[in-house]
Each structure stands twice: as C-alpha cells, then as structure tokens.
Amino acid sequence: MKLTRRQEGLLKQTFLDYRQITDFLRNPLIIDRAEGLYYWDSDGRRYFDGIGGIFVATLGHRHPRVMEAMRRQMEKVTFTPPLHGISDVTLDFIEKLSAVTPENLDFIKPFSGGSESIESALKFTRQYFKQTGHPGKYKFISRYFGYHGGTFGGMSASGTGSRKTKFEPQMAGFLKVWPPNYYRDRFSSWEECNRFCARMFEDVIVNEDPETVAGIIVEPIGNTGGIITPTQEYYRILREICDRHQVLLIFDEVITGFGRTGAMFAAQSYGVTPDIICSGKGLSSGAVPLGTMIARQDMACAFYGKPEDDIQFAHGHTFAGNPLACAAGIAVLDEIVEKRLDRRAGELGEHLAGRLEKLKRYGVVREVRGRGLLRGVELVRDTETMEPFPELGAALKKTALSNGLIMRIDPSWFALAPALICTEEDIAELCGLVETSLRDALKAVGR
Q: Domain 5-62+341-444: which topology?
C-alpha cells in the first residue's frame, strides 16, 4: 500500500514490535477496519487474518456477542478502583472461568494481558513458598526458544536470546533447558527425544538443590521455536518431576488457552494438570486487554490471615479485573462453551493439518506441527539434508502480504491460527493463499 506523507511522518514518531521502521516503510500495512476473519487496510484492500490477530481473535474480529456485552457494560461501569473494591461483573467472570478450568484450578486473578499474568505467577510462586516453609525456593526453569512476555520477569524466563540481550543483565534465578526439537535428530524416535528432554528438568533441579527451585514454566506448545509440540508423555514426566521435588508446574497458555488446541486449555488436551495457568490474548477475542493467573485453590490458603499478619499477595495492577474487559471475557467463554468451539477447533485442526501436509510436494516442508487450530510448518532447503531455508521464509513474508494473507512467519517456519469461528471453506481459502504465497516465494528465491 502507499502511505501518505502524514502517515509516513507519524510512523517515524513511533516504533513497531520487533520491527525496524525503515524496513516496515518498504512494505507498510496500515489497518483501517476488521470484521470476522478479515482486515482491510486504509486503501480498502482485504487481508485474510490467518493468525487470529496474533493468536488473539478467538471469535474473529468484532464478534457481535462480544461487542454487545461491552456496549451493555459501558452503560454501567468501565473502571473500579482495585485498592478499594471489585466489580460484580469481575466476580461473574471469575465464576464463569472457574467452571471451565482443569480440576481444582479455580483461584483466579484477572489482569490486563499475558505478560502481567506471567509476572504475577512468578511473584505468586515465590511468595507462596516464603509463606509455606520453603523460603529458599526462588529459581525457575524454562526452555530455550520459549517466550513468556516483555516484562523483566517474563523476559528472564524466556529463552529467546535476541529479544533479551539488549536489556541484560537479566534477573537472577532463571535457568534454561533445551526443548525437544533441538535434539530430535540425535534420537531414534521423537518419543525418546521427548523423554530425554523432559528428564533434563530433573537434572537441573537436583544439581541446583530442590530447596532452591520454585517452578517450571513452559508453553504447552512452543510458539517462537516453531510451534514445538511435545508428546503427552513429556508433560506426564514434568508433572512427576514437580511432584517429586515440590516444584510448581506453570503452564503459559497465553496462546494455547480458550479452545485453540481442541480443548478449553492445552493442559486438558495433554491430560496433565499444572499448578498454575497463565492466560491472555484470546480470552477477550482481542476486543480489550485481558488475561488471568489461575492457581490451585488450596494455594490460596497461604495468602489468607489476619490483617496485621500482612500476608496478602503483594502485587497488583491498575487495570487488573477491569469490568469492561471482564464483560468481554464472559461473552467469549459463553460463546466457546455454548457453540462447543473448542471441540470444533479440534476437528477443523485436523482438516487444516491435512491441507498443510499437501505442501510437502514442493520439497521444502520438513514437518507440520501443532494441535487444533494452532499449526506450524517448518521450512527446509531440501528434505534430504533438512538444512534450514531462511531465505524462503524472508521471501514468504513479502509474498503472503502481497497476496492478502497475514500469518506468523519466521525465517525457518510459519504458523497459522485462524479464529475458532472458521469453516472448512475458510480453511480452503486460507490454505489456497498459503500455497500461492509459497509458490511465489519459491520463485523469488530461484526455486
């Protein structure tokens, strides 16, 4: 699209996430409006939103039920002072959410998004152990390639070096192990690779001293590493390790939560219940910032007592539990539950995966990964050597946009996560755009 002088000037007064403005100006995108599965730019051109607004638009854009819930709430109250009280709609939201969380995870604190939820879980965990007789437990183990938010705590837990080094030194007490895809070529099977990588967590706990380790924090399906999808056994091993050493298992479900993987939470897809779930993104379908920290109810007991004991959770945010956001969250949860969109995502996800598998005929796809309507495709130079093909990913970023498609593209992989309201016809359109864009990218790199 062509920018006006005003737009170009204003772009130089701001910055985009992880994107140099000089690069953006070469191929800009200024969004004017959105509806359902589509965006329109300021020139009126339509784009298929193949990534759900970056894993956010669970019900698509401007879903009528969400818009109406927010309109009704705006007539009542849009902000309550968190140091003084809480809104009734926030309590309604907590009730709705606790009805769909795994097992006894129903101690819920709403926040303004995923990063806040992660930060609160880290602080909650450390304070919990200080108040339950294990004050030395403060370390967290996470994975390389993992991403847990832009705050200092979340960034320290993340394993994406290029996003961290500009702000180092990081916070102390954060350790990393490798995700299973890093070692996959050194084992006879994917299952054995996962067993080995899961057991690395215990090696670290034992060698660090279990009385210093507070938690393991992982994304059930790793986004920034290329939709890394471990086995169910991997998470069973992690659960056993945490139980053995009194370490909390924290699932970062900011991306995988709320129907995305074929169940309300990926924890339910994997059949493993963590001690804490952090959520964000799709909880409000992108209408307004919203996230939650969800913990075991019995853990809450450590935060109750006499006022003079001063043991309340020493953490808060101005917009935590915002009534307008909670009204949107209720609408999203009701729609998913009533329309059984989580189950539908599982069914459509298999259809999407089948369509993506057909891209292997181009000789540059190593693997299609993911669960439900969260799928990733790894790109390689050829399927004999499995050598990465970053030039192809760089070209695909340009050809996808020129073909009216928005998706998550890394130089070595791309990801799709369409809204849960999509149909088989929508998936056909999406995959057609993907294939066209891949063909154009192959031509651009001389293949």
A: Aspartate Aminotransferase, domain 1 (3.90.1150)
